[in-house]
Amino acid sequence: MRNTNAIVYHGFPVRGEKFLLPPDTTSLDPKTKREVTICNLFINHKLSVNEIIRVLDEDYGHIVNVLLNSRVVDDRRQRHDGPPEGIERRRSGELARRLVPRPRFYPSTKL
Q: What is the largest distance, in Å, between two alpha-carbon atoms of the chain?
């Protein structure tokens, strides 16, 4: 069950209100620096994913993966541990066999 008090930015459940930057970003490699920038823009500056795409010329999937892998946002996909609640709509094998019409074969007649 989802926490109703969760903070949500632009449709993503956020884990915290602030993103703490490393003290010295100049020593970071370019890939890590880009990931820190994405997280900083999303959390601290409250830019949407579409705004980050425009500013950094990144692709949507990469930005979402960075936010997920950095544990800035929670996964918003639904998880179902069991079967859905309600009426089972699949038919059992025996019932399905009875409902499917069988092909009719007619004996051939010799002329």
A: 97
